[in-house]
Amino acid sequence: MTENQKSELTLELQQRINSAAGIPFSEFMEQALYHPEYGYYTAARTRIGKKGDFFTSSSVHSCFGQLIARQLEQMWQLLGQGSFIIAEQGAGEGHLCLDILNTLEEKYPAFYAHLDYRLIELSPDNRQRQEQILHRHFAAGRVTWCELDDLRGMVGCFVSNELLDAFPVHLIEKHAGELQEVYVVNREDGFGEDLRPLSVNLIKKYFQQIGIEPAEGNRCEVNLVACEWMQRVAAVLERGFVLTIDYGYLAEELYAPYRHAGTLLCYHQHQTSEDPYQRVGCQDITAHIDFTSLQKIGGRQGLDVLYFGHQYQFLMGLGFLEMLVEMESRETDPKKAQALRMNLKTLILPEGGMGESFKVLVQGKNIGQPELICSKRIRDIGMPTGAF
Ligand SMILES: C[S@@+](CC[C@H](N)C(=O)[O-])C[C@H]1O[C@@H](n2cnc3c(N)ncnc32)[C@H](O)[C@@H]1O
Prior knowledge:
- By secondary structure, this protein is α/β, with parallel strands linked by helices.
- It has one domain (3-363): Rossmann fold (3-Layer(aba) Sandwich).
- The chain has helices spanning 3-20, 25-34, 57-60, 63-78, 95-107, 109-113, 124-133, 135-139, 202-210, 224-236, 251-254, 291-300, 311-317, 320-330, 334-345; strands at residues 23-24, 84-89, 115-120, 143-145, 154-161, 170-175, 178-187, 190-196, 219-222, 237-249, 265-268, 271-273, 284-286, 289-290, 304-310, 358-365.
- The longest helix is centred in the first third of the chain and has 18 residues, at 3-20.
- Residues 41, 48, 56, 58-59, 89-92, 95-96, 120-123, 126, 161-163, 166 line the site of S-adenosylmethionine (SAM).
């Protein structure tokens, strides 16, 4: 995106704000990320990886997708080894899809032959990137794009990694016992904020449903799009699983009194900032998600919680250590082996890594309570020789 385009988006937003006399922050965030021409996710730019703004687990190493493929194969077994859809929404550049498909093709060819991998992606730029990286699997007829509602009657697994944290959120503050919403307004020196009554009643309902309200004086985010998404996913799934990976907390922790300023964070060239009004359209804006409301909403729609844990527990359960040792033993150059180890550890380390801030939720519909491979507890995992 050029500087010119950036100011186009700012100009459009200023006009929108003028004519509406202020807009809820959620509308500002939606435009900043998904404006059809100038949005951060819609315009052509490198977002993920060293040359982009942030890393995702699937961009760190293919081992992430390889381990998830193991879990998917067990799910296929549990569903009777017939036709199986893996639907991935918000696949970014397509790395996770590629690593899953490559693993299934090589290690589980019978599953690969029954597989229909569907991508749901609203960014035209990402669709182009996905087409390039996945061309072989597209040509083999294993992967196609679709809309979420096309999946009605789906049997299989609905997958997402860092999708929900990219949904626009409402910013809420509590003052004198009243919930108020952040509106974005125009000021002489740029965008500013105003506190106003809630833009929609659903926000009050949301807090009633989770049984928690923010503490007096605190700011927090409410992700109503994620709530609606959970309902839609549960409605299209006939039988199978929903695997959601993202950073977030249960509501009690997300809305804990000590979290005074919420979790909204912006990413630009691997630097974080708390100012969403800078570099509008040129930086990512994210917020941690509330796994309690996903579990509650899913539960009302027939989705049982089969697994909820930290990413490091999930990956360990799937055989992370064995994979690390095996990959390292194949590496003859000690420097490369060391680099590989450091890279893989990013996926599980709590401090500065993705192991603890990321959570994994697996829900099941019409499948009972099967014991999933990922649930294997760390104390039951034998330490492979040379793991540490
Ligand atoms: C942070 S990126 C996800 C990265 C990717 N899953 C990975 O592992 O590298 C968020 C993705 O969600 C997509 N997205 C956001 N809202 C969406 C929606 N409503 N439907 C489909 N894709 C969406 C964005 O275009 C982008 O591809």
